[in-house]
Amino acid sequence: MKIKSLRHYFKRNHMMSSLLNLPLLTATLRPYLNAVRATLQAALCLENFSSQVVERHNKPEVEVRSSKELLLQPVIISRNDKEKVLIEGSINSVRVSIAVKQADEIEKILCHKFMRFMMMRAENFFILRRKPVEGYDISFLITNFHTEQMYKHKLVDFVIHFMEEIDKEISEMKLSVNARARIVAEEFLKNF
User: Fold this and answer.
1) 49-104 per-position pLDDT tens digit
2) Closest CA to 95 of 44, 26, 167, 150
3) Over pLDDT 90: what percentage of the chain?
4) Cα–Cα distance measured from residue 144 to residue 126, given in angstroms and rounded to the nearest whole number
5) In whole angstroms, what is the distance from residue 23 CA to residue 144 CA?
6) How far is CA 180 from its chain centroid?
7) In this entry, which stretches build a coiled coil (predicted)?
């Protein structure tokens, strides 16, 4: 009787500890996302700024880089050497570039395909750039017009939510590819 209850106790506690470990995995991500959120909120203090060169033109200074005094110091927030965010600010725009974690060759391929799929539909995402900054997987460009038309905190929430979900999506796709490969291999080996 005691052995059965001890087994049940350890089995139940093992299940509880494994359930408790799931949020801990995302808890390591939380400080990284909080740092990105705080930096983005500070960088999104944008205002309308007309071009100093051409009359009646208003271009994102972070893209044009016409004068150094209008640009802020770029900030890199890094979780590790492969997973980082570059936030480049200026007086009227902010460019956010994200490097997604890619542990192996399958994740690299899945990330490349997924990002290409997203960037082909950039017009549906108002702040998504068609081409990322070199060395990063995807980039967003937020201008003062976006902050005037949309809530700033919602823009920040979108970027943070995107960063949370992209990791989950790539992990799920990798599991799906591995499961499918296992099924195909089993079917192929049945012939021998």
Assistant:
1) 888 777 878 889 999 998 899 999 999 999 988 899 999 999 999 999 999 988 89
2) 44
3) 67
4) 13
5) 36
6) 26
7) none
pLDDT at 20 over 80: no
Q: Which two tokens stand for residue 56?
A: 């009646």
Terminal-residue alpha carbon distance, the chain = 49
Locus of tokens 């500890």: 17
Q: What are the residues whose beta carbons fall under 8 Å from the beta carbon of 84, sequence distance 6 or more? A: 76, 77, 78, 98, 99
Q: What is the DSSP letter of 85?
A: E
Distances in Å between the alpha carbon of 108 and those of 25, 51, 111, 112? 21, 40, 5, 6
Look at strands 138-143 and 84-89 and give their pairing: unpaired
DSSP class of 139: E
